[in-house]
Amino acid sequence: MSMDPIKATPQQISDPSLRQASTQAKAAAGAARRAAPLPPDVATPAPAQDSVELSDAARALAETAGPGAPAGASLTPERLRTVLDRVTQGFYDRPEIRDAIARQVAPDLEG
What we know:
Blueprint: H1 16-35, H2 56-64, H3 77-89, H4 95-110
């Protein structure tokens, strides 16, 4: 009865050249399995894409925001850094700054 060198363990093969061939064949078969593409039913799905849906109320609010409302990012990165620095340093907590801000936003609140 002859032994299949692919299915046999290296210890079961007495001929050194067959033992080496068996080891190499098993390594090649393992590499081929790892390199083979997955069947279509096992393939990884395409990455999800983000989407945004605006409600009718959100669209109406955007339309009624008025001509002075910003249409997107209205601050430059430098201005945003300045504002954030002032917030963290307590600049806007000073009474004179609060008064100035209140005077500027009051007309918008009266609307």
